[in-house]
Amino acid sequence: MEADDALLIERDCDVVTMTLNRPPANALNNALVGQLLDTFRALSREASPPGIVLTGQGERFFSAGGDIKEVGGIEISRPRMRSFHALLCEMERYPGPFVCAVRGYAVGGALEFLLHADYVVANHECKVGFPEINHGLLPAAKGIRKAVQKLGLREAQALLYWGDLTDAQRARQIGAINEIASTAEVMVRAGEVCRYLRGKERKLFAAIKRSLNLTGQMDDAALEAVTIEDLAAYLVDDSSAQARSRFLSKQPRKA
């Protein structure tokens, strides 16, 4: 398989679908991580970034996580982990909606993708978890922090310390996924959600997403600065002004 075949990219108007295509388990080798990183960066630089749906080829694996065949000494592992960390940063900061469509297993680094997504649709057969502790591996610290933020400390500890996999129902209960659909409907539903979110006012969506993802890392002064910066951006935006006008036009007039 050519390296370029490992990530399939399709564009339909305002939604880009990326498919991890490394059978049998869509493992994340360094080349694939690099392709994902380059694609997220390129799309984020567009004047109007599209929505992204990320999925895996086939029905058994979204992805089995990092390719253990590439785990070696620190000189090999250091640049690999730096690329993966950079990818998680790009996913977190991507200004448009980022939706994961999961069929089958999403474990290790793949679960970190889910935790950095804005919305996750999974099938009933989905399994998620952090099995690294049982395989001589270590999750990215950024992924661990996101697990604590989204799942809570106790749930993150259970997944990380035990290394067991969790089924779709439990994954939804703890917040690892948002909704469950049939295998045939996962991609359809993920596309619907992505298009719906992409239809929101772009600058407001990006500002809210940035605050949700990054404000936990800021002090009060930085929070004030980012609020003023976002305020200045959307108050002068035509689509934001039109949305406020539509809302005001629906309000009952005072006597």
From TrEMBL:
Keyword Lyase: yes
Signal peptide residues on this chain, from the entry's feature table: none
GO BP field: fatty acid beta-oxidation
Keywords annotated in UniProt: Lipid metabolism, Lyase
One Pfam family from the record: ECH_1
Coiled coil region boundaries: none
GO molecular function, one term: lyase activity
Keyword set includes Lipid metabolism: yes
Protein name (Swiss-Prot/TrEMBL): Enoyl-CoA hydratase/carnithine racemase
Species, as recorded: Bradyrhizobium elkanii
